[in-house]
């Protein structure tokens, strides 16, 4: 099929490249010329494992091109997928990018005579597609929805695993205004063999996306609350508790008596809090949507509150240990909000560094790829903040190291290196990926989230 994708960020680019690799003819549209130029030059504008290899194949096979020309792209495609940002504005969803792109598409459709489906892939609060999007499209095109197709197809990919998640989805949710819109969208996904394609109405599709993110975020805050209790009780380790609780087959289904999900990859890992461009923004948008309906949410309100406190609890524990953090050299192992990405949006590292700076500490941030992104938010300054990709340089004569992002390379640092390099070898494991016994055997003071 011929598909145009409006907005070529994480979601738009991954969608475009993956659909092109399934044989569709894809045009990626972005308003940023530098993004378009990079794509056409077969250089990925974002860091995502496996993406650039697929991009090279997609562009060289002629299945993918990028442009800033929306009109030409919409006229030359059967479906337009909208993947522009829906950022938070004072904790409410900002729909201005959606509105602008819908208007632009509608204006082109005014002069297009064959059937065209407009599909919202961006995350939008329930009833956005069947009210705001529908009204704008009808007004701009001078046509009724029905004559133009309308769908909402939420995206569930995770950064760092985006290609894998897109190519092998657990389910494909298609909210459709009518049967014809649904059938057209279904055709796009006909070669995604193992995923069920679920047909729902537009607003249900929107609610499924928010519910998914709110549930996953709530599981993390729940685990962090249990971690706080474990820290106040000697000899209980939250890692052990959560691991054994989740052996229950209601969390960990079995096939032929074998665990399907043995690594506890189920959002019940306590840590220094969830970050990223989605969980914080989407849970807050759901809270604001809910309040707008006159319902005061309780659980998801607590999810955000616990997440805000979680990085600060870490600092409090350090203060209890060291009395004062003033002048202490503190190494932050990990700046990205999770491994395998250079994205630092809402990363717990930001709250941790800012709080430590307020207390007069000196920061040495380490990350394999997220340093440049972090410098834009917390710039390097010779006195109190510096960054390096090299942990050896950072750890030299440090007072404390805090592991914030579970990059595998940090878990692979030998415990002896901390003892040898640091002034006072104290390690605070904010992701529980280090081996406490090995650290203690190497003479390092080990502190961990969810462990007294
Ligand atoms: N990032 C994720 O992992 C993820 C996963 C699932 C869903 N989502 C949702 O998908 C949406 C997009 O997220 P993202 O992270 O890809 O955003 P992003 O900020 O990375 O990318 C958005 C892109 O849209 C472009 N753009 C904005 N208005 C435009 C217009 N009128 N015409 C052409 N281009 C335009 C911007 O230049 C930018 O490159 C959001 O609603 C987000 O909540 C994101
Ligand atoms: O047990 C866990 C699992 C995750 N996290 C943290 O949660 C955050 C988000 O992680 P993850 O879900 O892997 O990354 P995202 O790329 O933000 O993906 C989420 O947000 C996307 C955007 O909406 C959705 O598409 C995905 O389904 C949803 O998982 C990160 O800071 C993680 O460190 C934990 O603290 N404990």
Automatic annotation (TrEMBL):
Residues of the active site: 278
Enzyme category, top tier: oxidoreductase
GO BP terms: polysaccharide biosynthetic process; UDP-glucuronate biosynthetic process
Annotated binding of substrate, by residue: 156-159, 209, 267-271, 275, 338
Pathway membership, UniProt: Nucleotide-sugar biosynthesis; UDP-alpha-D-glucuronate biosynthesis; UDP-alpha-D-glucuronate from UDP-alpha-D-glucose: step 1/1
Key words of the record: NAD, Oxidoreductase
Binding locations of NAD(+): 30, 86, 123, 159, 281, 345
UDP-glucose/GDP-mannose dehydrogenase C-terminal domain span: 331-436
EC number from the UniProt entry: 1.1.1.22
Catalytic activity, as annotated: UDP-alpha-D-glucose + 2 NAD(+) + H2O = UDP-alpha-D-glucuronate + 2 NADH + 3 H(+)
InterPro entries: 6-PGluconate_DH-like_C_sf, NAD(P)-bd_dom_sf, UDP-Glc/GDP-Man, UDP-Glc/GDP-Man_DH_C, UDP-Glc/GDP-Man_DH_C_sf, UDP-Glc/GDP-Man_DH_dimer, UDP-Glc/GDP-Man_DH_N, UDPglc_DH_bac
Matching Gene3D superfamilies: Cytochrome c1, transmembrane anchor, C-terminal (1.20.5.100), NAD(P)-binding Rossmann-like Domain (3.40.50.720)
GO MF assignments: NAD binding; UDP-glucose 6-dehydrogenase activity
Family: Belongs to the UDP-glucose/GDP-mannose dehydrogenase family.
Protein name: UDP-glucose 6-dehydrogenase
Top-level taxonomy: Bacteria, Bacillati, Bacillota, Clostridia, Peptostreptococcales
